[in-house]
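[Automated response] Your request has been received and processed.

Submitted sequence:
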Amino acid sequence: TATAVVKRDTQPPVVACPSDQVVEATSPGGTMVTLTPATAVDNIETSPGVDAQPRSGPFPLGTTLVTETATDGAGNASTCKHAVTVRDIGLLGAAIALAVAAWPKHFGIKK
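Generated structure:
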């Protein structure tokens, strides 16, 4: 007679978040951000699903915490968090950056 062995999955996947991201605003409201995907491994399943909230898309100025959730077929889940910071260097910051970039050329300084 054959005996069937059934493995019961009780362990959640292990999820690893990407590093925090810092991006420059492209408008007063923020910018579009494409998130680096989190990765996950599971003791039973080869590719557990990973979902980010919020997802890639428009992010406002400031820091937004992104929660990555990995879920396996048995419904076990684990999470990690990473930050996306959208910063606005503003017109003064942009003017300073341009002046610094032009400084050596304008004053005859060679790099």
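Summary generated for your ticket: The helical segments are 90-106. The radius of gyration is 23 Å.
If you did not submit this request, please reply to this message.
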